[in-house]
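I would like you to sit down with the pair of lines that follows and say whether tokens and residues agree.
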Amino acid sequence: MTPIESIGKAFDPREHEAVLTVPDSGKPDGEVVAEMQRGYRVRDRVLRPSMVAVAGSGNAADDTTSEVN
């Protein structure tokens, strides 16, 4: 059994579970910036994915819904 290295790596949904997005972290979007729970694998099989925080742009899409009168 080996731990999954996460911090500083690109987010991979096969190995990571994103539980938090960190805006304005100074890191490229999609890079893992923190690990909340270590993940493990045996050979090529993931036993438990790492729970991680991922860098994001912080720009949420504008909500352009219109009101009906």
